[in-house]
Each structure stands twice: as C-alpha cells, then as structure tokens.
Design goal:
Number of domains: 1
Shape: globular
Number of strands: 0
Distance between the termini: 31 Å
Strand content: under 5%
Low-confidence stretches: none
Structural class: mainly alpha
Mean pLDDT: 85
Number of helices: 14
Order of helices and strands: HHHHHHHHHHHHHH
Largest sheet: none
Length: 262
C-alpha cells in the first residue's frame, strides 16, 4: 500500500509539472476560468430566453457542476499523449500495478476541476439572480470532490481506449463528455429521456452527485443527499473497476506483442 501511494504521488507530481507548462496562475484565471464562466453563462442565459427563473437556476447549477467532469476527463488526452510520446514504457517500469501508475498520472485534473466548478458556483449565481447560500455552497465542496473522482474513473476507462488507439483521443473525450452532458441531468432532468437513456444515466458519473448538489442547495433532506452521494460513490467504483480491467488487459496484450511503444 505504501509503495502504491508513493507511485501515485510521484505520478501526481509529474502531472502537476506538466500542468504548470500549460498554465500559469495568470493564464489559468484569465484564460481557462473566463472560458468556463462564459460557457456556463451561455447555458444559463437560455433560462432567460425561456423566461423562467427555475430554468436559469437549473441550467446554471448543472453546467457549473459538470465542469469537474470535463476536466477530470482530460486524462483521456494525457494517456494518449503518453502513447504518442513513446513514454508509456517508462511509466510501466515501476513494479506497481499499471492502474496505480495510470490513475496517478492525471489525478491533478480532479483538483483543478473541483476548483473550476467551485469558482463558477461562487461567482455566477449572484450575477444571474440565483440565490445560493454561502454555507450550503461550502457544503457542496466534498460532493464536488466525489463527483470529480467518479468522473476521473470514468475518464480513465475512456483513456484505456485511447491508449490503444491514440488517434481517436479527441473523439473519445468529446463523445464521452457529451454523453454525460446530455443524459446526466445537466440541462434537462434525467426522466425527460426514454427508458434506455435513463438507464444509461444511472451508471454515468455526475448524475447522482449533481442530484445531491441540487438537493443540498434546495434544502432537501440529509437522507436524500446522502443517498445520492452513496450512489455516486458506487458509480465511481464501477468505473474504477472497469478502468483497472481495461488497463490490465491492454498492458498484458501489448507486452506479449511488443507494441507498448507503438
């Protein structure tokens, strides 16, 4: 266990170092955060077009929360980049299981995703006339972390596909994220969809966590909020298992065929 934590910690350090080559604090705040604020504002404005304050609230909260999934899913590009760069073999020189190395590689996206969602939830509701209590908003932070971890497990499963076929990295990322945007209750309630998309939504990250955030901000019972959080944890564990099996099969197959560097 200590070795696994050490390996994940070293992978995290690598991810942070890579992130710092992409953004400085100034470019992150003036570039990425401004872009995300604009994106969420676009969807919230649809509520004004519908002349419904309830829709403004629904769209704003949903699109602010789903940002953590967007960033967590960027692990898809991270792992495809390892394959393109020929550095995948170096990652696997550790005696730890492949899933340990791969999970640590992009975990920084969870933390930045939580920060992005939290900043958006703090700044935009007052501008759009959406009442959100400061204490309730603060209580949402642990839920955002759980959503981020579940989304990261989901993204890691998708990354298991792009590490096989790295040329499809952007396609896999966008389709995977848009499925969550469409069916997880971000812009329309889950029960808006027919039975099959509703069933798909139950195993997607964000669905239950977003319900917990909405319930907490709307004053729902603690029992309801905790039940939604529990379901989000189960979804995260499901995708974690799927990602672990996917990586294990890939590494075993690639080692036999000598294609880890291809």
């Amino acid at each position: 266990m200590i070795m696994r934590l050490r390996v994940m910690g070293q992978s995290l350090v690598l991810g942070i170092a890579e992130y710092r080559t992409i953004y400085t604090w100034r470019s992150w705040l003036s570039g990425w955060i401004v872009r995300m604020l604009a994106q969420v504002s676009f969807f919230a404005t649809i509520g004004f077009m519908l002349r419904s304050s309830a829709n403004v609230r629904y769209l704003l909260i949903g699109n602010a929360v789903v940002l953590v999934c967007l960033e967590a899913s960027i692990v898809v590009l991270t792992m495809a980049g390892e394959r393109w760069g020929g550095t995948l073999i170096a990652l696997l020189t550790t005696p730890a299981q492949p899933i340990t190395v791969f999970l640590g590689r992009g975990i920084n996206w969870v933390f930045t995703g939580v920060a992005t969602s939290a900043i958006t939830l703090a700044l935009l509701p007052p501008l759009f006339g959406v009442p959100v209590g400061a204490l309730r908003l603060l209580a949402c932070l642990p839920i955002l972390v759980i959503i981020g971890l579940a989304a990261y497990a989901y993204g890691s499963f998708l990354a298991g596909l792009t590490v096989r076929w790295p040329s499809f990295d952007w396609l896999v990322l966008n389709v995977g994220y848009l499925v969550v945007m469409a069916f997880a209750g971000v812009n329309v309630p889950v029960d808006y969809w027919p039975a099959v998309p509703q069933a798909i939504a139950q195993v997607l990250p964000v669905t239950h966590g977003l319900q917990a955030v909405r319930g907490l901000l709307d004053g729902a019972s603690y029992g309801y909020v905790l039940s939604r959080i529990g379901l989000e944890v189960l979804v995260g564990l499901f995708w974690l298992l799927a990602a672990s099996l996917s990586y294990r099969v890939f590494v075993s197959h690639a080692r036999r065929r000598g294609t880890l560097d291809m």
